[in-house]
Specification:
heterotetramer; A mainly alpha (555); B mainly alpha (253); C alpha+beta (368); D mainly alpha (117); C: 368 residues; alpha+beta; Helix Hairpins; Cytochrome Bc1 Complex, Chain D, domain 2; five-stranded mixed β-sheet; 12 strands; disordered C terminus; D: 117 residues; mainly alpha
Chain lengths: 555, 253, 368, 117
């Protein structure tokens, strides 16, 4: 009995179909003016990868600087700029759009059986906004960077810095609208464009997750926008909304900022969870355990996500009593995540599991996200938050969630849908290796930070007491491994574009609508709009299909 | 596989078999679906707008409770006449806009153009009045950050006409300084609102041109409808700004 | 490269010899915090182990080779209820426990010795009641509760003592406070943990915990002659506060004797406890803090007194329990017209908002 | 050729027709006129009310009237009264999130005075 489910067409005869969304039209303009969600997704994938590696390079610099206790590699202000740019690039230009704008953009219309997103022009517009935001960030970097930290804390950002706060703010503002439009587009599409028979509870969990994330994008981002606008006004004209010298309250800014930036965390992680649901189900050959629970837990996370932001401010002199409310709600929002983890785990139960690369990344996600989530409870609990917040513990925590969770999910998704996207398989063995390297490197990098954080090493320090060095050395060493782990996929995926095996329609024997059409798909996805008469993850249906094919081919 | 691609290569022929109205985007199954989708999208966009202004309203609420006296005398600086006039203007413009949508639905080109122009003019009128009000503030140095002066609050008599109206007590210096917060919010809120008006007016100008070319009287009025939604939303924002900034703090403290 | 590896070696040895997973417990609250912390660590480890065990065992048991055909299972309400309710229960326990610790740390006892800490880019300045000033260090005795009253002169800072498990942000324009009771003498880290600009990582210092006797010695050695309250008293006279706040029956301002800690009713009807934060506000934004029965005639001192000045005043008022000396100083200051002039000048300041940059000047005038 | 075109056009019109069916029903101008004048009247009322000193009730009344006006605009000018459940839900969702923003922020500001720092 084989250990893989990969079933590729006979390579000697198989070809990647001549007509597909990539070959439909040629020329730069056909890309820059395209309305096709798959092409826009491709554009996004390229630009996002670009910024991911910029952010990664900055992260490398940070780790190098922290190799020694003194700030000897770079001056403190340079270091401050580096970690600020790292934060801005990674959060606003990579994490927030990563899965939704690439995989979501590519898959949601196909998964619900539509020809395209509801608003292709808006979709393209949101990519252009993203690019503008990106260019502004690059401009900021070239013209001396900014050192507010990605949180733009007032009055530091308004009165005490003379770096490019404005251009960065504008970049965040623009990028924010890009994500608003993406989310808006998804919600409309999922509501209005579902194929006949595609009821809400037949939707793949990937779609549910994106629906939840989109709600957060649409309702959260504008509050960040107005906060940024007020900061800009305060910098330029000196109005006094947040200025303590004029009677404003700087903590109000924090409220507005975190009202978006906490839900933003769920904007980042929810789509990743969607990916994991698809991957786990496919490689366990099993319907996701407790489909409804997982679906609703996504929505629950989205809704609760709006009620917990103040747990970023427990020590900032907010009212002690309000921390009770927010801490309690934070505990509630932790529960749906737990539900998801256990449901995925039990999806494996009595499955028929194989261990292709996406599954490995998915396992990585489940392990690391569990740690990230649990350490999140440490910070949501008011008492322990006092000691742990603003230290490397919190850095480790959100890197476990964002890098260990989100990035693993992103890579899982990229590998999983790569054959669909390009029509060719990635090389399995080396990619499995890459997954392993990433996992090891990641733990080496970030686990020591939990300890050094508990010991009290503050975040955003260019120089630190000598006794913390050894753990930082571990961390930096791990970061180099991690770097390799991220470079490998870039290389072999590029290689596979030309030399990868032809994938055929459904290499994974998966059940989603996207796997029933040619890969790469046609410009409008379907020859005719499918009529859906089955639930998601219906593997019996898939078996019946195969039998049918066999009999017809025999007959 | 191969023949399926063949069919798709014949996509235009395929489209020819069941014709769409020219303005139906090809990825929609029916015109109804397109209309629903676009107007739903517009509503979601308005949602983001609500949250955008939401931040400002929150700030206003908090500071009004902190610095009530400053907000009282601050609002006394606003001319209730102009405020009311502006509200009337904006409501009327909302009405003409609604009529515009109606005449588009009825495919009455002349009427449509007429109402759009009316809305356009009323919008300009609103901005005109706002400019007058802003001008006053600039004269009195009540623009935060630009040589802001609390003279007319620490010594209320120094500000003749306002004093005759309201006979405010002079504020102690510390509270008087907080009027700057009031005006910060006043300019932030009305400024954001005015910005939305300007965008709206620009779109209106564009629409008028298209409408005269008969663009919206062929039965496809989504654009007009959605713009209507936007315009009414801007109206609603003002419906709240007007009492908050002009009315609710008129009486002493 | 070479020296780095050398460094690594040195520290590897050092680190392994005194390997620590958490900082020393040097305050009363630390063990309580750690108890909760270890409880959470334990729960997390169990949870993680459960998940990892399940995943691995399932992947072994149900790998394709061993278990070729998957059995489709819809789900199980019972199971799902279990892993909804159990985590929820645990989280709620953590919430309650955490809240208890949190309130302990942020509600100082009445008998706490109060030390003022001013944060500014990029240093910590501690002011002891005895008038001792410290930069980037804090000497404190064991065995008595110590309250820190924090204020920032510019941006957000955060006063963090890992060994005590306490941390509190120093906010511009408002006092915040935190307290602890040191248990073991020694020198511990002091960090600014809220990013505050270029030299954020240089805004560190040391907390020196001394035995009560050593502390007495230290106080004696490092006294600056004048106690904080005495500075305050001088300032109180220079700014002619005593012109109104002198406890005379005809005085225009309320008597400040024993005002600290008392419950006041303000003109706007609200009742407040006169704590440090309130006194500060009452000096800088008087009109919002007028005691009932008095008219809002007090001028604001925003921008005329440095934070240190305000601290001195607050400390003075805290310790003021009779108006006798006030009367004395009043009589003397009446002989000095220029201070009166200063006061009236302060009252009729030009009505333009003063930028905070002015503050140091004010300090200068106060000091001499 | 021409026949074909005719047929094409007729199909087109028929399309437009069923598209008009699923278009939310057209609100007669009469209603707009009523609504518009009601709004203006309310504006008058709220201004008048602002001159009467009702203490804490000035804001209450003013905001109540504002809410009424806004509701009218939403229901009639913006056709929500005649639109799908989804639209109604969207509006509700917007209001809800706005209230969350205000309410939860106030949770901090209102309770700050409680106890001491």
């Amino acid at each position: 009995m084989s250990t893989t489910i990969v079933s590729l067409p006979d390579q000697s005869t198989a070809r990647v179909p001549k007509t597909n969304f990539l070959t439909k039209e040629n020329g730069l303009l056909s890309w820059l003016l395209t309305g096709d969600h798959k092409r826009i997704a491709t554009l996004y994938l390229i630009s996002i990868t670009f910024f991911f590696f910029i952010g990664g390079a900055l992260a490398g610099l940070i780790r190098l600087e922290l190799l020694t206790p003194q700030s000897d590699l770079m001056a403190t202000d340079t270091y401050n700029k580096v970690f600020t740019m790292h934060g801005v690039v990674m959060i606003f230009l990579f994490l927030v759009p990563s899965v939704p704008a690439t995989l979501g953009n590519f898959l949601i219309p196909i998964m619900i059986g539509a020809k395209d997103l509801a608003l292709p022009k808006i979709n393209l517009l949101s990519w252009y906004l993203y690019v503008v935001g990106g260019i502004l960030v690059l401009y900021t970097m070239i013209t001396g960077g900014v050192d507010t930290g990605w949180t733009f804390t007032v009055p530091l950002s308004t009165h005490y810095l003379n770096t490019n706060v404005l251009s960065t703010g504008l970049a965040v503002f623009v990028a924010g609208f890009s994500s608003i439009f993406t989310g808006l587009n998804f919600i409309v599409t999922i509501h209005k464009m579902r194929a006949p028979g595609m009821t809400w509870f037949r939707l793949p969990l990937f779609v549910w997750a994106h629906y939840a994330a989109s709600i957060l994008m649409v309702l959260g981002t504008p509050v960040l926008a107005i906060a940024i606008v007020l900061v800009a006004l305060e910098r330029t004209t000196g109005i006094g909304v947040f200025d303590p010298a004029k009677g404003g309250d700087p903590i109000l800014f924090q409220h507005l900022f975190w009202f978006y930036s906490h839900p933003a965390v769920y904007i980042m992680i929810l789509p990743g969870m969607g990916v994991i649901s698809e991957v786990v189900s496919t490689f366990a050959r099993k319907r996701v355990f407790g489909y409804t629970a997982v679906a609703f837990s996504s929505v629950a996370i989205a809704v609760f996500g709006f009620f917990v932001w103040e747990h970023h401010m427990f020590i900032m002199g907010v009212s002690n009593y309000s921390t009770l409310v927010f801490s309690l709600l934070t505990m509630l929002v932790a529960v749906p995540s737990a539900i998801k983890i256990f449901n995925w785990t039990f999806t494996l139960y009595k499955g028929s599991i194989t261990f292709e690369t996406p599954m490995l990344y998915a396992f990585g996600f489940m392990g690391l996200f569990t740690i990230g989530g649990l350490t999140g409870v440490f910070l949501g609990t008011t008492g322990t938050d006092i000691h742990l917040t603003e230290t490397y513990f919190i850095v480790a925590h959100f890197h476990f969630v964002m890098v260990g969770g989100m990035l693993m999910a992103f890579l899982a998704g990229i590998h999983f849908w790569w054959p669909k996207w390009t029509g060719r398989m990635y090389p399995e063995k080396i990619s499995q290796l890459a997954a392993l390297v990433t996992f090891i490197g990641f733990n080496f990098t970030f686990f020591p930070q939990f300890i050094v954080g508990t010991l009290g090493m503050p975040r955003r320090y260019a120089a630190y007491p000598a006794e913390f060095q050894i753990l930082n050395v571990f961390s930096t060493a791990g970061a180099t491994i991690l770097g390799v782990g991220y470079l490998l996929p870039l290389l072999y995926l590029a290689w596979s574009l030309k030399y990868g095996e032809v994938a055929g329609n459904n290499p994974w024997q998966a059940t989603g609508l996207e796997w029933q059409i040619q890969s790469p798909p046609l410009t409008e996805n379907f020859v005719e709009i499918p009529v859906v008469d089955r639930d998601a993850y219906d593997y019996e249906w898939l078996e019946r299909q195969k039998e049918k094919e066999v009999t017809t081919s025999v007959g | 596989m191969s023949d399926s691609t063949a069919i798709v290569n014949g996509a235009p022929a395929d489209a020819h078999e069941h014709p769409h109205p020219p303005y139906q985007r090809h990825h929609f199954e029916s015109m109804g679906q397109q209309v629903d989708a676009t107007s739903f999208a517009m509503w979601l966009f308005l949602l983001t707008e609500v949250m955008f202004f939401g931040g400002l309203f929150t700030a206003y609420l908090i500071y009004r409770n902190w610095y009530y006296p400053a907000f009282v005398v601050g609002s006394h600086q606003l001319d209730i006449f102009w405020g009311t006039a502006n509200t009337a203007v904006l409501i009327t413009s909302s009405f003409t806009m609604a009529m515009g949508v109606w005449s588009a639905e009825m495919r009455r080109k002349g009427l449509l153009v007429f109402f759009l122009v009316m809305t356009f003019l009323l919008g300009l009128a609103f901005l005109g009045i706002k400019t007058i009000e802003y001008g006053e503030k600039i004269e009195k140095h009540h623009v935060p950050g630009f040589h802001y002066s609390v003279q007319s609050f620490v010594d209320s008599r120094s500000d003749k006409e306002v004093f005759e109206k309201y006979h405010d007590k002079s504020l102690p210096l510390d509270m008087a300084r907080h009027t700057e917060v009031y005006f910060s919010l006043y300019f932030a809120m009305t400024g954001m609102h005015a910005l939305h008006m300007i965008i709206g007016i620009a779109i209106l100008a564009f629409m008028i041109v298209r409408a005269r070319a008969g663009a919206y009287t062929t039965g496809h009025i989504t654009f007009v409808e959605n713009f209507g939604l936007y315009w009414h939303f801007v109206d609603i924002i003002w419906i709240f700004l007007f009492p908050l900034l002009y009315l609710i703090s008129r009486h002493g403290y | 490269m070479n020296h780095i590896s050398d460094v690594i070696w040195k520290f590897l040895v050092k680190w392994l010899t005194n390997f620590a997973l958490f900082p020393p417990e040097a305050s009363k609250i630390a063990p309580q915090m750690d108890a909760l912390y270890f409880f959470m660590v334990l729960v997390s480890l169990i949870g993680l182990t459960v998940v990892v065990l399940l995943i691995t065992s399932f992947s072994v048991l149900y790998r394709k080779r061993r278990h070729p055909v998957a059995v489709q299972i819809e789900g199980s309400t019972l199971l799902e209820a279990t892993w909804t309710i159990i985590p929820l229960g645990l989280f709620l326990v953590m919430f309650v426990w955490g809240a208890i610790v949190y309130f302990r740390i942020y509600t100082p006892p009445a008998n706490a010795m109060n030390i003022y800490v001013v944060g500014k880019q990029w240093m910590w300045k501690a002011e002891h009641p005895g008038g001792q000033h410290e930069i980037n260090s804090l000497h404190i005795p064991t065995g008595r509760p110590i309250q820190l009253t924090l204020i920032s002169q510019d941006v957000f800072h955060s006063f963090s003592i890992p060994a005590f498990r306490v941390k509190r942000e120093a906010i511009p324009g408002r006092y915040t406070s935190v307290w602890f009771e040191p248990t073991t003498p020694g020198t511990y880290h002091l960090f600014c943990t809220q990013y505050c600009g270029t030299n954020h990582s240089a805004m560190i210092g040391e907390i020196v915990v001394l035995s009560p006797d050593d502390y007495k010695k230290w106080l004696a050695d490092s006294t600056s002659g004048m106690s904080l309250a005495q500075n305050g008293e001088r300032l109180f006279a220079t700014l002619s506060c005593n012109a109104c706040h002198n406890g005379r029956p005809d005085s225009r301002g309320p008597s400040l004797a024993n005002v600290f800690g008392s419950k006041l009713t303000l003109t706007n009807g609200s009742a407040v406890t006169a704590d440090e934060a309130f006194l500060r506000q009452a000096i800088l934004n008087p009109s919002e803090h007028v005691t009932q029965g008095y008219s809002p005639i007090m001028p604001t001192y925003q921008g005329q007194i440095s934070e240190d000045g305000v601290i001195a005043l607050v400390e003075y008022i805290k310790n003021l329990n009779s108006n006798y000396r006030v009367e004395q100083t009043l009589n003397t200051t009446n002989l000095l017209p220029e201070s009166e002039g200063k006061a009236s000048g302060a009252a009729a300041r030009p009505a333009t908002a003063t930028p905070p940059a002015k503050a140091p000047q004010g300090q200068g005038t106060v000091k001499q | 050729m021409s026949a074909k075109q005719e047929q094409h056009l007729s199909k087109h019109d028929q399309l437009l027709h069923d598209f008009h069916d699923n278009l939310d029903h057209v609100v007669p101008p009469r209603i707009y006129i009523i609504v518009g004048s009601v709004l203006l009247i309310f504006t008058g009322i709220t201004v008048a009310a602002s001159y009467a000193d009702m203490g804490v009730f000035n804001p209450v009344v003013a905001l109540f009237i504002a809410v009424v006006k806004a509701t009218i605009v939403v229901l009639f000018f913006m056709h929500v009264k005649y639109s799908s459940k989804l639209t109604k839900l969207t509006v509700a969702g917007g209001i809800f999130t706005f209230l969350v923003l205000v309410g939860m922020t106030l949770a901090d500001y209102v309770t700050r005075a409680w106890g001491r720092w």
